[in-house]
Amino acid sequence: MSDREEELYSDEEEEEYDEDGNPKVTVDLLDIMEQGLAHEMPSDLLKVPDPKAGGELEEYFFVRSEDKSIVNFYRESDESFQICAFYRNQCWNFSLYEPRDQFFDASRSCFTLRPTGGYTKFVMQNHHCEGCDKSSYSCGHGSQTRQELGSITVTERDCPGAAHLDYFEVVIPSVYADRSRSIWCPRKLLSSANPHSHYALQELKRGKSFSEYLKHSNSSKGSSFLDSPSKVTPIRSNSSVSTACDPFDREYESILLKTNIPKWDAKTEGLVLDFKGRVGAPSVKNFQLIQDSTEEVVFQTGKVEKGEYIVDFSYPLCPLQAFCITLSAQHL
Questions:
Q1: Which residue in 112, 135, 308, 310 has the most C-beta neighbors within 10 A?
Q2: Degrees, nearest 5: CA angle 96-175-90
């Protein structure tokens, strides 16, 4: 166990739902904030780094419990706790409190990382939708149709010198120069002005992610920005690049991140990546992501020691998305 690992525990209490099928919020987070009992709002974890930082990666790390069911996420510079992920009801749930904290409640979570296809496809969801009424932590259509923060797909690819390579493709909502993001909110799909609303909502209720729906719907029109990496919103663009056919499509522009393929090193007779001295141990979970349109490394994670991994990222990722990407790799 890592020296920095804290005492962790899990709570198996069942989540309660209201008459509409939405998770019941028993304590208002705003009330907790007013009492000075919460250290931050969930939105703090959705802020992306400054795009003018020159591609420098922000440094974080996580510590995992021995049974791998609880993971605490910290900022490297001051080792301050950021958020806790706990595995419950076959998905990762997130709390602003550590399990040892008196305000930790496993029946409530502010984000979810939900598998949608075994453990090779995941969807990142926000329970406090940025596009909905701030007093609500759900988009109002059940736990599977909340605001989506991105999707993660892992496939196996052949790689010289290795039996196979776990290849990640991460699709996230577009982020613009002012650090605002495209909001993938299912409530928008109910707009009467949106000709695709009924079909789209049904697809989301069946468990399909926003990115899967967008890829299908745009391909059927003969124009898919998910299939055209060169047309994905540039990392430092002042305005988004529209490749879609109507205003509805422009609301759901995306950014594609993909695995940085390691290079074969004759000296070590192995595959190598440059982690700038941040990784301390070899692991199949050590990998980097690059922006498809720029080839720039925007994410890296790797093993420091047993139960501890680094999580480094830059614009256009936010802390929560980076943490989720790393968690998805823990199932491989």
A1: 112
A2: 40
Residue 7 DSSP class: P
Secondary structure in 3-state letters for 228-275: CHHHCCCCCCCCCCCCCCCHHHHCCCEEEEEECCCEEECCCCEEECCC
- Residues 119, 332 contacting (CB under 8 angstroms): yes
d(CA 59, CA 54): 15
Residues contacting 222, CB < 8 A, separation 6+: none
Question: Which candidate, 311, 291, 243, 244, places its Cα nearest to that of 57?
Answer: 311
Q: Residue-wise pLDDT tens for the chain (332 aa)?
A: 445 544 443 333 444 555 555 555 444 445 544 444 444 567 889 999 988 877 789 999 999 999 999 999 999 999 999 999 999 988 999 999 999 998 899 888 889 999 987 788 999 998 888 877 555 445 654 445 788 999 999 998 887 666 678 999 999 999 888 888 888 887 766 654 556 666 666 776 676 777 776 665 554 443 333 333 333 333 333 333 333 334 445 567 889 999 998 887 778 777 788 998 899 888 889 999 999 878 899 999 999 999 999 999 999 999 999 999 999 998 76
Amino acid code (one letter) for 222: G
Report which DSSP code applies to 184: B
Write out the two tokens for 54.
Answer: 């020159």
pTM above 0.90, yes or no: no
Is residue 326 a contact partner of residue 311, using CB atoms and an 8 Å limit? yes
Question: Residue 224 CB: number of other CB atoms within 10 A?
Answer: 18
